[in-house]
Write a structure and sequence with these properties.
By secondary structure, the chain is an alpha/beta fold. The protein has a single domain (3-338), classed as Glycoside hydrolase/deacetylase (TIM Barrel, Alpha-Beta Barrel), CATH 3.20.20.370. The protein has nine helices and 16 strands. It has helices spanning 21-39, 49-56, 62-77, 114-132, 155-163, 231-244, 276-291, 312-322, 332-338; strands at residues 3-11, 44-48, 81-86, 94-96, 99-101, 143-146, 168-169, 177-180, 183-186, 197-200, 203-207, 213-215, 220-224, 264-268, 297-304, 327-330. The strands form four sheets. Strands 1, 2, 3, 6, 7, 10, 11, 12, 15 and 16 form a ten-stranded mixed β-sheet that branches. Strand 10 (197-200) and strand 11 form a beta hairpin. It starts with a strand and ends with a helix. The structure holds zinc ion (ZN). Zinc ion (ZN) binds next to loops. Residues 10, 12, 48, 85, 87, 147 line the site of zinc ion (ZN).
Length: 342
């Protein structure tokens, strides 16, 4: 059956609150939307609503926040998807001497009180629907990705998502495992590396027919940790560490377990970091996984607006995709409409 690649991009500045909204959100997203439109493909923007909230409340950021809102509306109007991403440390962020100070006590959504979790999820969904239904009356915020993939312990977050009518989560990536400070994820027992499952309310990695949230994981494959040591990634990790003053960071790096030989890490299908051959390689494996299935099969790729550079490799990949008769580029909203899962 056909493969539905969902190219989902986290729409945000750097994790420590640094970086220009113009350079890291507006410009790269315009570049991407231009390329997607050229090919008739749809992008899935995972809008980090907490930072948009913070800058909307700052007088000095009025112009930029309205540019962000019109960009999201423009994208929606053109048929792209916009769904919810949350880094709660932004909700109480303060601008001091031109620098955003995030509230790192609120870094991990699942670690907040139930009341706060519910409030933040509700605010995020309400914000997107208020912004986007005027340009697309059929729009619904139905998918979520947790900031830094932190969705464990999951019970309260999943409840809050369900109660807001959000039906899809895409935070899990098979093999993900990290413990930094009190923040911990363990996705080593994920039900599948790519195919969706109905998530158990007590264990997002487990399939449970009674679950109300569909997990569509970020497609990931195991790779040797040494392969990820690129300067681009090291610089990003160092920036995050500096910003958080060692309170927590590096969630992306798999935990070292035992000897050097066991240093594998889950390499996500990342369309803003991978090369053209890597993108094709992941897609081919996904095509093989989808081939035997009787239903349309989603395959989630992640990206970050902070990582967008020259898009020559992506243009090449899009040409390649056009030649694959069994591969579509879809969105969470688009996949939800054709799937019988939710
Ligand atoms: Zn993020």
């Amino acid at each position: 059956m056909s493969l539905h690649v969902i190219l989902s991009i986290d729409y945000e500045v750097y994790g420590d609150g640094s970086g220009s909204f113009e350079d890291l959100l507006l410009r790269p997203t315009d570049q991407l939307l231009g390329l997607f439109d050229e090919f008739g493909f749809k992008l899935t923007i995972m809008a980090e609503v907490a930072e948009i909230y913070a800058i909307k409340n700052s007088e000095s950021h009025h112009t930029i926040s309205s540019q962000i809102e019109s960009q999201l509306q423009r994208a929606k109007r053109a048929g792209h998807d916009v769904q919810l991403h949350l880094h709660p440390a932004w909700f109480n962020a303060q601008l001091r001497d031109g620098v955003w100070q995030l509230d790192f006590a609120e870094y991990g959504l699942p670690y907040l009180s139930e009341e706060k979790i519910r409030d933040y999820v509700e605010r995020g969904k309400a914000y997107l629907e208020k912004l986007l239904t005027p340009v697309d009356p059929g729009y619904r915020c139905l998918a979520f990705r947790a900031g830094n993939w932190l969705i464990q312990p999951e019970r309260t977050v999943l409840d809050a998502l369900c109660d807001q009518g959000i039906v899809i989560d895409s935070s899990v990536f098979d093999g993900g495992r990290s413990k930094v400070g009190r923040y911990e994820i363990d996705y080593t027992e994920a039900h599948h590396c790519m195919l969706p499952w109905r998530a158990s309310p007590d264990n997002i990695c487990r399939q449970d027919d009674a679950g109300r949230i569909i997990e569509i994981p970020i497609y990931a494959r195991r790779s040797n940790v040494l392969n990820m040591l690129t300067w681009k990634r090291i610089a990003k990790q160092l920036r995050l560490r500096r910003g958080m003053k060692n309170r927590s960071s590096g969630m992306e790096i798999g935990r070292r377990s035992g000897s050097m030989l066991n240093w594998t890490y889950p390499k996500k299908f990342d369309f803003t970091r991978m090369t053209f051959p890597e993108l094709c390689d992941y897609t081919r494996t996904a095509q093989r996984l989808a081939a035997d299935l009787a239903v349309p099969c989603p395959c989630v790729a992640i990206g970050h607006t902070t990582d967008v550079g020259d898009l020559g490799y992506l243009r090449k990949y899009f040409h390649w995709i056009k030649q694959q008769s069994d591969v579509n580029i879809n969105t969470f909203q688009g996949y939800h409409a054709i799937s019988s899962l939710t």
